[in-house]
What we know:
This protein is mainly α. Helix content is 85%, strand content 0%. The protein contains three helices and no strands. The protein is elongated, with a radius of gyration of 18 Å. The structure holds prephenic acid. Keywords: Isomerase.
Amino acid sequence: MDNIREELEQYRAQIDDVDRELLACLAARFRLSETIGLLKRSADVHVVQQDRATEVKKRYETLGTSQGLRPDFILELFHLIHQESCRVQDRLR
Ligand SMILES: O=C(O)C(=O)C[C@]1(C(=O)O)C=C[C@@H](O)C=C1
């Protein structure tokens, strides 16, 4: 039982590390989105760029499925991230 508890703690520590990386990556992505948002604002370009969003979504599907992620999950994740990215840029207007 003690061994199992120890092993569990080790895996949980690994999950905590991965979560830290995930959140750091997300924050980096939104900082880039903010920079793009400033460029769009100065060029009077719309926040939502449907062609680019479709391209990004396709990349999520390709990369996500190749990593064994569930297609529905990939789609939800893309929508969540794209929505937040647009919110970040909308706030600059
Ligand atoms: O590529 C852009 O124009 C972005 O602003 C980035 C981004 C994204 O987060 O991937 C956000 C909004 C657009 O609809 C398309 C893509």
